[in-house]
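Form 7-S
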Amino acid sequence: MTEWSQGPAEVAHAGLESEMAGGGGGYYFDPLQLVADASDEGKLLREVLQRRLGMSRRLLVKLKRTEAGIVVNGSRARTSDRVAAGDRIELRIEREESKDILPQPMALDIVFEDEHLLVVNKPSGQIVHPTTGHYAGTLANGIVHYWREKGEKSRFHPVHRLDEHTSGLVVVAKHAYAHQQLSGQMSEGRVEKRYRAYVHGAPPARDGEVNAPIGRADGDPHRRVVREDGAPSLTYYETAKVYGCGATALDIRLGTGRTHQIRVHMLHVGCPLIGDEYYADPEHTDSALAARLASSGVIARQALHAARLGFRHPVTGADMRLEAALPEDLQSLEGALSAWSTTSGV
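Output:
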């Protein structure tokens, strides 16, 4: 697991009592608190909040407009005030709701939840957020309903997304600060995302990387391809298991987070994902294996699962390491591949 550098770990989730902070149904999240030290002496409050907490200008503006949003030593403060060592700074983030998302009851596989974020194991076949033509049945619809049933007022802030037919872990922030901090970790490559994939064939090396730029395909705005003028894209892979029937199980770690990155990079090295009709490649698909897969109906989507996530908690600074077991269809695929071939561990 990657070692993270110290960031906003010095922030404490104080859980302080307040007339306006009342749990999930109150107006505000429990205050974030920090104590100014010698390095903060004489600096503007906004500078301290930006340096110590990584607070964005946009969020600072929001806090300034919020009643008791920024409090120093028990009194409301301005971001232009000077800070003294020992000052007790408290920030209260106002609760918001996703009023544009239709609440719908649905089963949710919640892996972790606290006041600041929720991590859920998304099933295959579900879109993360409503889009044009898909206003219902998304993960967002289910989570908004779940929060309302609990009497919790939180806004749906997805930190990242998974393709509709990719299963696995998705992180949702409950407020703007948590979203900002986690998004920053994502963009800086400090979030470790590991996937299990089952592919046709085998990569050129047992373990390695695919460093190839990805961009939109000409004539198809949804399809991605490797192209020289694309965005830099990096994927690391390790071979977990080789199947004699013409398939390989790979453990994959993302160095970047481009749309369809794993699917495009695996196709690029001649190993299209099993079950991925959109990026299918007959040239690199064993015909006998393809026939077996088609007749068995063992898999009806791309064989890709977001199995593990590692990140620093956006408020407490704790190292988070979360896992989601393989879903039933991929377990069945594993069994079928083993039954169709002599399996060798690598």
